[in-house]
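Hi team,

Filling in the usual template for the complex we talked about on Friday. All components are listed, including any nucleic acid strands or ligand strings, so the model treats them as one assembly.

SUBMITTER: L.P.
PURPOSE: interface mapping
COMPONENTS: two
RESIDUES: 930
SEQUENCES:
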Amino acid sequence: MEIKKQKPVWVVVFLRGGMDGLNFVIPNSGSDREIYESERPTLKIALQGKDAALKLDEHFSLHPAAKELHGLYQKEKLAFIHSAGLSLDTRSHFDAQTIMEQAAVSKANLLHSGWVTRYLNATQSKSKIAAVSFGQTAPTSILACNQAAIIDGVSNHRWPLPNEYQDQFEKSLRSLYALETDVRPWMAEWGLQTLEVLNEFNSMADPNSKANDYPKGELGGKLQALSKLLLSKPEIEVATVDLGGWDTHRYQGSGLDGTFANLVTQLSQSLTHFYNDISSVRPVIITVQTEFGRRLKENANRGTDHGHGSVMMVMGDGLKGGKVLGKWLGLKNESLYQRADLAVTSDYRDILSEILVKKFDFKQLSSVFPGFQHRPGLNLFPS
Amino acid sequence: MLSRRSFLKWTRNAGALGALVPLHTLAAQIKQQIKKQTESDVDRQSASRPFPIYVYHRLGFGPTGVQLEINADRYSYEKYVEEQLHPEKIADVLCDQKLASAKLSTLSKSNQELWKDHKLKVDELKKAQEGKAEKINENELRQQPVRELEAATWIRAIYSERQLQEVLVDFWHDHFSVNGWDGAISPTMVHYDREVIRKNIFGNFREFIEAVARSPSMLLYLDNGLNQSGNPNENFARELFELHTLGAENYLGTLPRKSVPGYGLGKSKGYVDGDVYEAARAFTGWREDSNQKDANNTGDFNYYDTWHDRFQKIVLGREIPEYQPPMKDGLDVLDLVAHHEGTAYFISKKLCRRFISDHPPEPLVRRIKKVFLDHRKSKDQLRQVVKAILLAPEFKNPGATKIKRPFEYSVSLIRSLRRDAMFDFFPDEEFLKKQGALGQRLFQWKTPDGYPENKERWTTSSGMMHRWQFCNQLIDKGLVDLMQFKGDEQFHRSVQKTFFGYESESVSKILQNYLASVPREKNNQLPHPAVKATVLLAMMSPELQWK
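RESULT (copied from the run log):
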């Protein structure tokens, strides 16, 4: 019972490169299926045979490499939102990622802080590490946040000096960076925050343990480190995790072979493992998004070029899962965005807003998503 | 460029949700955000470090131990700039020796040799071993060129007297970034660095982008080698506009081409998706000579007319007629983008960002843009542009410090340790692996935008932890002579002199306090760990993180 009362931790997963939503949650019937098959003669995912897509409902099936996610879907822990994404007119990775992670109204109005940063500022969280992010460089969603730990793993830390030298050394190092506060504030913040993070690691019960045998690969490694942190640091509210490689202009593969299937396998196995690992200890919400989907028509290199709408995923407890949500306009030429790509009918901010309101009881949406009018009604959660 | 007002208007009309926003609220919010940003970027006190040391950090990878002892009065900045702008006239004996003794056998290979030895041979070996239990390590041979290029780049950054050249090579490798460790691209990287990047850093931008567009590395990386009439592959064309020339700030999204200002005059102010699609058609048939149909598999550039879309195109408002001679369509596009005002602005700003500040002053960028345009036909256009930036008053008074990126940080520390000809450093695999943890293993950034430049991307906790660990790694490698420090009264000064080349009063105070807190040994000697700790404090201090 204790678990349920805790504030959930929000894990924001960003699939970089533009994930092909149409080969992830695939039309399985009617004229949409016919159009899909004729526009994607070599890339289409079959509905029968050993590489067959996994049925979700009467209209959609899931990529066959996502069988773990399919299991969560059947347990109603997972919902897909089709035709989701950024409603602005851009097919540029870097524009789209920047705008989405800042949650800016448009490219002319960039904000210089990430939406996760503004959320944490609005909740006035007191913890020194309220957010974690994995990687060597900072993602935009968490830019200008002084409560974030951007790390590449978790381990015990010790200065390369004898025991009796540790404390005094660290004190002096701290003073050197504190000196910068009035000169170069960014430098002071950088050094001091790093020292905080190192101390947090050292205060963990067993930071070097390799718990729970996560699936191999980039995402598995990050989620394993994250689970260790979350277990010992209840004050962490948000984590951001990236998985790149979705820019499949050539040979993206079909069925269980190729780049796309490999990425889906990694995504499905790692996320599901993480969810099962963490949800028994702490409530968790996982959102998965990408900057755009890909062109309906495949190119001559058995790949797909930049498109528009894609799929978003939400996982967690207390969700009305087991559904493919969102307004689906279909693949008929006149329903497509610019007669070429899947349309966007659900703005990514509507999905994030619904989670903020329903799951976090958060009211100040305009500070996180400035200039955005949230339109409820997706019904991700039971009312 | 599109004016801010018309841009706003466009985004309001185009963004389905923008219309709901009361614009004045938004403007206020944005203003506040921008204010916050600029405030945090500008230093509150101007940087206090001797000017030559500042210059060695900005025009190069930091001063060497020898240069740290420079006499600031006798130093002529203008003369140094002029020398650095002509690297071919600078003798580089020590660097050449170091490169020769490193025995990097791929550096002098032609593109065809690289292709034969590191691509075709690997394919053959793989074939011969099919079904056999024993497997060769194919990556070893495939990646030998990029591995050796990486080592050579470290050696040059550390030892070369042609420091500005090395900085510009670093800059342009990011600007025209390819994932050099990808198995398909790695055999070609030595050629890319030598014949494409290094040849053009002081040359003409139009020639530069053509060399890039024809390079096997870029053709393989952005898929133009596969681009053919019918369903063209847009990958290269899009990044040519967005990253190589006009820049994302001149991307007007999916607007109809006709509504782009200047379109009717044949001079579109910005580009839209329509331009990307047409440019993709213009480059159909530009490919590397690999094992495709009708190819000789030499690895060189090869124009394949059968794949080319011969019909008319319109790019940036200019018509490209049907049935042009071979390659002319693509060359026309390169002319258009190379000489576009948006490109002049984008490239100028990016170079100013590298040399002056993360947020370079607008008037400066406009002046540099003019130099870029005035010299658009000059053989040494980019030399003139770089020269104008380095001699601008803003260079001497940038208003904000820049962060050293991980490569700059590591190289500058190693250079400060280079006090005489005996100093010997070679970047072995173990060393480079750890560099990966700092966040900037060379040629390994996967997306085509290159390693980021601005400080907010790099100020991560993992980055700092690994920088700190790197300091101890240098000590463990025996590169820091701890014995030279006697731990005497002047220790807090000498250690700063060694690593910074100057003393900072406040740092001195902290080091003195530290030294006072350490219990002495019987003969009043400073214990060894305390010497090490003091040296580490200097190496790990903020002074070495900025430039």
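MY TAKE: The CA atoms of residues 66 and 326 of chain B lie 55 Å apart. Chain B has 26 helices and four strands.

Thanks, L.
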